[in-house]
Amino acid sequence: MLANPKRLLLALAVSLAASAPCALAWQAADGVLVSQETLDGYAGRYLTVDGLAFKVWREGTVLKLQPEGGAAAELVPDSETTFHLRGMQGHVEFVFDAADRVSHLLLTQGGATAKAIHQ
Predict the structure, then answer these.
(1) What is the pTM of this model?
(2) What is the SS3 assignment for 38?
(3) Which of 1, 14, 60, 85 has its CA at a distance of 20 to 30 angstroms from the CA of residue 110?
């Protein structure tokens, strides 16, 4: 007698998940799943042409954005590259260059968009 294929797939998935290092960083009702590696790739300092600096970092399973001298905001993933600011109007998009490295972010708030270059 053949085993139930759905049960075999489920058992395989559970086995792989238990044996692999945890790479999942975010899964919430209002966000999508993004790997820790991807979130870590966004970390760093970003600077606008006007001299406004932003710090981006991962704190546990959460990506955060903080303008220099301001309060930190939690970034909730809408996709692998776009995030909205928890509890605020606005969103952030991370943009990549031809070498597939983060080149800058676009912060949109109140109808205005600021471009900040990854340092």
Answers:
(1) 0.74
(2) helix
(3) 60
Whether 48 and 92 have beta carbons less than 8 Å apart is answered as: no
CA-based nearest residue to 77, from 39, 32, 36, 107:
32
d(CA 18, CA 116): 39
Q: 19-58: string of b/e by CB count within 10 Å (b at 16+)?
A: eeeeeebbeeeebeebebebbebbeeebbbeeeeebebbb
For residue range 46-91, list pLDDT tens digits in order: 999 999 999 999 999 899 999 999 999 999 999 999 999 999 999 9
Sequence letter at residue 32:
V
